[in-house]
Every structure is written in C-alpha cells, then in structure tokens.
Amino acid sequence: MDDFGANFSNRGRVGLIEPSIVKTDRMVLEDYMQGHRTKLVEAMNIAKEYGAKTVIEGIETQEQFDTMKALNIDMYQGFYHGMPAPLTPAA
User: Where are the domains of the chain?
Assistant: First the structure.
C-alpha cells in the first residue's frame, strides 16, 4: 500500500486490502524528523499487525537514513540512495 498517512491510506484501508508492504508517505518521515512521531509509529505497528514489510519514502539525507535505519524499517527509498535515471533498453 502506497502513501500511508496521506489521504485515504490509513488503518481502515490496510484492513481492507491486507497488503504485504506498507509504504509511508514522505510527509510522515518529515513529521517524524520534526518530532511528530505518531504517524510513523502507527504505520509500523499496523504493518507489523498484518505481517507486512515497511518502506519509508523521502530519504534525502544521511541523518534521515540513520534515523530510519535505527527504527528497523525494512526498505528505504529516496534521492539519498540514488537519483532517478532513464532505463537502459534491453538488448
């Protein structure tokens, strides 16, 4: 499930679709880094409840990566790990 914490991506939606992966919205990371930890903790607890892996999007700095890594999030996405690039055509 994409963008947990934004719009309709919430606990109710997780319960309906029972995803194998819960990917949090970038704003959840930003809120956490500013001391507002509720949404990220909720996302992690819900994912655990449903046996889903967690992905945090929006990692742009070493500090963000280190902080999220300390929380044992399963996967990380963001410009810190690599900028988007065109795909190389298959031969």
Answer: 11-77
